[in-house]
Amino acid sequence: MNKNRMFGRISAYVFLICGSIFMLLPFAWMISTSLKQEGKVFEYPVRWIPNPVEWGNYLTVLTEAPLIGGLMNTLIIILPPMFIGLLTSALAAYAFAKLRFPGRDFLFMMMLATMTIPGVVTMIPTFILFKTIGWLDSWNPLMIPGMFGSAACVFFLRQYFRTIPSELEDAAKMDGLNPFGVFVRVILPLSKPALAAQAIFGFIGGYNDFMGPLIYINSPEKFTLQLVLASFQGYYVSNWTLIMAGSVLALIPTVILFFFAQRYFVEGITMSGMKG
């Protein structure tokens, strides 16, 4: 290995390590704050290691805030759209990637055009629509639209499906499978990385959603985890130690999910852009 190549590799490692440390600082501050006493959050200079360590913040959050109930409400809201929406998006992506029908490319471009519309533009009309049909203060606005898939998910899966050789489909058709059979028996088993990546995106997106539940849910017993955490923040006083303790606890499910699915996640992201 020549000196220039070694210097380039060392520089890349140094840059990545510095970037990783920079991105981990907010998480370190969150954990540090969750273990501090209430009056020592904004002390200067910053004390990264709390003294004394206040483990009681976590006990307070678990006993005084309905975190478990908020977590269960969140899972009820996000799991059905995640699975059903993933299936409907996969069906649409398969049609756009492998089937031939009149207007396919035009419909695909029209679907992509919807991704350019900001969510704030449709927020008020959507709210009026759900209010008219009586869906306010319910989970329906947060669940049912997601069951029909999303344009981003369709686009992502379409890119992945196009990397699957057409010879496999031809062989399956020669064995007597119809297009839906090819989709179920050939396409889906070969698309586990892409499906896992989209499932992770859907789970994290719904898990961290704050604006949707804030708009449509009014009853405290229906609050999601994000609304429960926001209840620690008042108009005049915010208990940051409890907010950070609750945030650390709320972060655990997503970290566990990514830890077990990271291989599929990275593979799905990598393979989706290999063919235009």
TrEMBL record:
GO terms for molecular function: ATP binding. One of its GO terms (biological process) is transmembrane transport. Residues 71-261 form the ABC transmembrane type-1 domain. It is found in: Cell membrane. The chain crosses the membrane at residues 12-31, 67-94, 106-130, 142-161, 182-204, 240-261. The keyword Transport applies. InterPro entries: MetI-like, MetI-like_sf. Gene3D superfamilies: MetI-like. SUPFAM superfamilies: MetI-like. This is Sugar ABC transporter ATP-binding protein. It comes from Paenibacillus crassostreae.
